[in-house]
Amino acid sequence: MDPAVPVPPGAQAPAAVPIDIGADPARELAREELSGRIYQEAAPDPVQEVLRWIARRLEDLLRAASGISPGGGWGLLVLLVLLVVVIVVVRRRFGPIARTAAAPGAVLGDTERTADEHRRLADGHARAGAFDDAVRERMRAIVRSLEERTILEPRRGRTAGDAAREGGRALPAVADGLLEAARRFDETVYGGRRADADADARLRKIDAAVSATRAVGAA
Questions:
Q1: Could you list the pLDDT tens digit for every one of the 219 residues in the chain?
Q2: Which end of the chain is more exposed for a tag (fewer CB within 10 A), N or C?
Q3: Is the model's pTM score more than 0.70?
Q4: Is the distance from CB of 185 to CB of 163 less than 8 angstroms?
Q5: CA distance 189 to 105
Q6: Alpha carbon of 20 to those of 30, 82, 83, 114: distances in Å?
Q7: Beta partners for 159?
Q8: Are 203 and 139 in contact (CB under 8 A)?
């Protein structure tokens, strides 16, 4: 332990924690971690920007601490602990765990509701300001309506992207709208991107356009 760092009476340093880590290795460790791809490739997000700012400030503090106490000490240890906390939060938010959870799944799941029932749920969620749920139910209404019109065969496990591509082939006039609706659904339900009133209004408009469009070759 650095003799320049006082220890309160009766307090003991943890035996299992190396508090005399060298300043240069600590600084290099922080720089290596902070230069990783996870800090460079994640989509712009206010939370991410805050975490990046914290990480940069911690690196600055580590550099300053190494000049004040080149042999290590409690201050450097605290900064390293804070850095580890930031790293864990960022990796859970944007790392492999988040990307695994973002894998698109079946759009309808196990629900047996009709298209109109999904629309009523979407309207209720939108009135309550729960736009994530509104987007989810509106996309389900679109897919269920395509099944009810026999444009799509009912099939479990169909993703929003599958439904959009299959529906777009039968309804080319709204193919782009279906792809947009599927993208917004995946971003909201599986990608962690919050929906808003504009997203709800856009899916509502796409739903109406799909309902009003006749399939190619229909009498």
A1: 444 545 555 545 444 444 455 556 666 666 666 555 555 554 556 666 777 777 777 667 666 665 555 445 556 666 667 767 767 666 655 554 444 444 567 777 777 889 999 999 999 999 999 999 999 999 999 999 999 999 999 888 888 899 999 999 999 999 999 999 999 999 998 888 899 999 999 999 999 999 999 887 654
A2: C
A3: no
A4: no
A5: 9
A6: 16, 17, 17, 65
A7: 106
A8: yes
